[in-house]
Design brief:
The chain contains 13 helices and 3 strands; from the N terminus they run E-H-H-E-E-H-H-H-H-H-H-H-H-H-H-H. It has 253 residues and is mostly helical. It has a 3-stranded antiparallel sheet. A hairpin with a 5-residue loop joins strand 2 and strand 3. The protein is rod-shaped, with a radius of gyration of 33 Å. It comes from Streptomyces olivaceus. InterPro entries: DNA-bd_dom_put_sf (IPR009061), MerR-type_HTH_dom (IPR000551), MerR_fam (IPR047057), TipA-like_antibiotic-bd (IPR036244), TipAS_dom (IPR012925). Keywords: Activator, Coiled coil, DNA-binding, Transcription, Transcription regulation.
Length: 253
């Protein structure tokens, strides 16, 4: 029984052009021709094509494939053994690669994994990934960092939007209090500070009063935090720090 070039291309999931090329270079010469001169492939040709495709899948160049298949000392079983060994080695390599990719995916999923467009929608001009290296260096070994990574690992764009909306609302509260001349030690300011602490604990990591006061101090000691917070209102970073300290004192015996 013989098959046309189109049929063989369909069987092997290759193009007719590929089969023509294999014929032209002598790698796979069809066993027969039709009366009209068209290529006709027999079962032996199909077996050889299978061997060719095996080796090609393994990355062998065509000239090496030809040399292997035309080796008079090799028999079909030898080819199968060689291919089995090569495929086994490739499987092991791919498994190692898959494991490495999984680790990379896991590491990536532990952070803010949004597209640039989504980041802009949620955070505006601020890119939270910009400081990731510094964050890991300063806090990578802490329980707070670990908790935050674990807790936010599955956050979607909608989750991050909710977190950002909560933060924006708190900022508006603090600004309104500052504009109204409300002292940082007032009940309203301390309540806002407490809501700030609870939001961190709810969305990121366990944030006790000692941890919260450390954050408040950082708001004024690190000019980048101060500059970012004060974009909403001049003096807001210091006001928030004072409210956080007052709130901690209120809850600490």
């Amino acid at each position: 029984m013989s098959y046309s070039v189109g049929q063989v291309a369909g069987f092997a999931a290759v193009t007719v052009r590929t089969l023509h090329h294999y014929d032209d270079i002598g790698l796979l010469v069809p066993g027969g021709r039709s009366h009209a001169g068209h290529r006709r492939y027999n079962d032996a040709d199909l077996d050889r094509l299978q061997q060719i495709l095996f080796y090609r899948e393994l990355g062998f160049p065509l000239d090496e494939v030809a040399a292997l298949l035309d080796d008079p000392a090799a028999d079909p079983r030898a080819h199968l053994r060689r291919q089995h060994e090569l495929l086994t080695a490739r499987i092991e390599k791919l498994e190692r690669m898959a494991a490495a990719v999984e680790q990379a995916m896991e590491a990536r999923s532990m952070g803010i994994n949004l597209t640039p467009e989504e980041k802009f929608e949620v955070f505006g001009d601020f890119d939270p990934d910009q400081y990731e290296e510094e964050v890991q260096e300063r806090w990578g070994g802490t329980d707070a960092y670990r908790q935050s990574k674990e807790r936010t690992a599955s956050y979607t764009k909608e989750d991050w939007q909710r977190v950002q909306d909560e933060a924006d609302e708190l900022t508006r509260r603090f600004v309104a209090l500052l504009d109204a001349g409300e002292p940082a030690g007032s009940e309203a300011a301390m309540d806002a500070a407490e809501d700030h602490r609870q939001g961190i604990a709810r969305n990121h990591y366990d944030c006790g009063y000692e941890m919260h006061t450390c954050l408040g101090e950082m708001y004024v000691s690190d000019e980048r935090f101060t500059r970012n917070i004060d974009t909403a209102r001049e003096g807001l970073a210091a006001y928030m720090r004072d409210a956080i300290l007052a709130n901690a004192a209120r809850h600490t015996p």
